[in-house]
Every structure is written in C-alpha cells, then in structure tokens.
Automatic annotation (TrEMBL):
The keyword Transmembrane helix does not apply. One of its GO terms (molecular function) is transposase activity. Residues 213-290 form the Transposase IS116/IS110/IS902 C-terminal domain. GO terms for biological process: DNA transposition. This is Transposase IS116/IS110/IS902 family protein. Residues 180-207 form a coiled coil. Keywords: Coiled coil, Plasmid. InterPro entries: Transp_IS110-like_N, Transpos_IS110, Transposase_20. Residues 6-145 form the Transposase IS110-like N-terminal domain. The keyword Chloroplast does not apply.
C-alpha cells in the first residue's frame, strides 16, 4: 500500500514519523535522526506532510516542498485535541497525521527565507528593547536607594543620571559612581544596537513594495509594515480581513451559550508582538484625531468611538480596522487611498 499522509513531530535531533495510507491504515512508525530526514523523504513518493508550526518548521517545510511533497503547518493548539493517549513523540506524530487531513483545519502560511530573516531582525530588536528597559529600571532602582529619584521615561536616564553622579554634593561612594557609569555605558550600547537593527529593518522596508504600501495606512509605520508583510506571508491564504484580525487576537473573545451572546475583551491570540505594534500605532492616530480642528472621516469616526467608549477601545478598534485594510491592500494589490471607502459609499 502507498503512503499518502505523513505526520512529523519535529525536534532538535530525533524526529518521529507516522505515515498512513489513503484508508488511514498505519504504514510507517519510526524515529529518524536529523541527518536521516532528507534521505528518507527524497525516496518517499510525493505525499501530504503535516507538521506543527514550531522551531525549524518553516525550514523543513521548504526543504520537503522542494522534494515534491505537499507540506502544511498547523498551530500546536489545533493539534492537541487529536492526541488520544498520554503525550509522547509517537502519539504527537499520529495526532499531527490525523489533524492535517481534517477539512476544517486552519493552516499556517509557509514563510520564505527572506520573510524569516526579517522577522528575526524584529525578534532581535525586541530583545534589545526589553534589555534596554530592564537596564534603565535597574539604574533608576539603584539610585532610588540613595534617595535620588529619576522622572519616568527612559530618556530621563541619559539626561539626569550623568549630572547626578558628577555632583559632588551627593553622598555617593566612589565605587557606586563607577558602577552607575558602567551601567550607563551598557545602556548606550543597547540603544545603539536597537538603532542599528531598526535601520536594517527600515532599509528592507524601503526595498519592499508591499511594505511600502502598508506604511501609507495611518497608524502603520516601517516597523509595523515590515512585520505585517513578513508575518502574513501570502495574504491570500486568509479568506478575509476579519480572519486576519481574529488571527492577531484583535476581536472580542466569546463565552456564549443557549443563544445568548456574551462578548468579553479581545482574545489576544496570535502574535503578541504584531498586535502590540498595531495598537501602539493606533494610539498615535487616536491622539492626533483629538487635536485636529477639522477632522476628516477617519478622525470623526475615531472621536465618535472615544466619546461612546474610551481611548483604549478606540485604539483597538482602529488596530482591527488597519489589519483588515492591510489584508485588502496585499490581496488585491492596491494602494491605500484615504477617501476610498467614502467615495464608494457616496457612489
């Protein structure tokens, strides 16, 4: 009998393989070392291969596709219900093999090398930003032990701390002054790393036509646009803009029963980094909308939401709207026009 579907439980060194026929009969149950994977699948007739979207999944997906296989990636939480017994590698591979054949399964778009490299730049930048914030808070906490309070905001660290450690009237030990100076140098180095990575991201953004289109949307800049393009991959893999917003966790979480609708806060599913960028960008638009004396259609809509609810709800609503607009621009290959919806509605 011919193997038609294969489930792979990915790992660092040992991979569990589970293959079945078109009738669901198990034909392959084995473990493979990393150096055996290519040899095994190049000799296997083309079939459907399922994997969880985890570490190295996109790498193996591209490699197996080049061998003629049809590869589909799934989120781990969608595979978990198909695990029949206790969790182990064999049970996970069997669950993946079964889940990939479900007609209503949701799949993760496979990213190419360029998209992955851009996302890694974003992840590295995010790590340096977190380290910079932690370093600034450490300096602020150490100085507070001596009664020296720094105003909130990371920019005040560089503006006020050098003056404090140079002030001879402060009862600060010499060793402590040297320590703070060392931490300040570390903070400057982290700041430099963030700026360099951001420059690389902006350079890629300027070369990408799709990313440049998204940057024209109010509330989306080069950082958010490049992250959206690299994360979405092929936007046509999503059925609608609403599905993109749900994928990013920008829609209400439901707890409904008995025909009674009960909507909670946003679900916060998907990529928290991308969702945070969209919401922070929307906050700036909400702020500008409140300052304009002659608001346009978008500004009036935002102000209406702010008056009915609050600024946080308006920011999330605009982030949801921007995600749907981004999907429409990428799917239909259009450029953003501020009055596009208004002109269509009036027509």
């Amino acid at each position: 009998m011919k193997v038609t579907t294969v489930g792979i439980d990915l790992a660092k060194n040992v991979f569990q393989i589970h293959g079945v026929s078109e009738f669901g009969k198990p034909l392959i149950k084995k473990q493979l070392r990393r150096n055996q994977m290519a040899e095994f699948f190049v000799n296997l007739p083309p079939c459907l291969v399922g994997m969880e979207a985890c570490g190295s999944a996109h790498h193996w997906a591209r490699k197996l596709q080049a061998m003629g296989h049809t590869v589909k990636l799934m989120a781990a939480q969608f595979v978990k219900p198909y695990v029949k017994t206790n969790k182990n590698d064999a049970a996970d591979a069997e669950a993946i093999c079964e889940a990939v054949t479900r007609p209503n399964m949701r799949f993760v778009p496979i990213k190419n090398v360029e998209q992955q490299s851009v996302l890694l730049l974003h992840r590295a930048r995010q790590g340096f930003v977190k380290a910079r914030t932690a370093q600034a808070n450490q300096i602020r906490g150490m100085l507070s032990e001596f009664g020296l309070i720094i105003p909130l905001g990371i920019r005040h660290i560089a503006n006020h701390v050098p003056e404090l450690i140079e002030d001879a009237s402060n009862v600060l030990p010499g060793s402590f002054r040297l320590l703070i100076e060392r931490l300040l140098n570390h903070l400057k180095e982290l700041d430099r790393q963030v700026d360099e990575l951001e420059s690389q991201i902006v350079a890629w953004h300027r070369q990408s036509e799709a990313s440049s289109k998204l940057a024209r949307i109010p509330g989306i800049g080069p950082i958010t646009a490049s992250a959206l393009v690299a994360s979405l991959g092929d936007a046509k893999s999503f059925d609608s803009g609403r599905q993109v917003a749900a994928w990013l966790g920008l829609v209400p979480k439901q707890h409904s029963s008995g025909g009674r609708q009960n909507l909670l806060g946003i679900s916060k599913r998907g990529d928290s980094y991308l969702r945070t960028l969209l919401i922070h960008g929307a906050r700036s638009v909400v702020l500008r909308a409140s300052l304009k004396s002659d608001p346009n259609r978008t500004c009036s809509w935002i102000n209406d939401v702010v008056n009915r609810r609050n600024k946080n709800v308006a920011a999330v609503a605009l982030a949801n709207k921007n995600a749907r607009i981004a999907w429409a621009l990428l799917t239909h290959d259009r450029r953003y026009e501020a009055g596009y919806i208004a002109s269509k509605a009036s027509a």
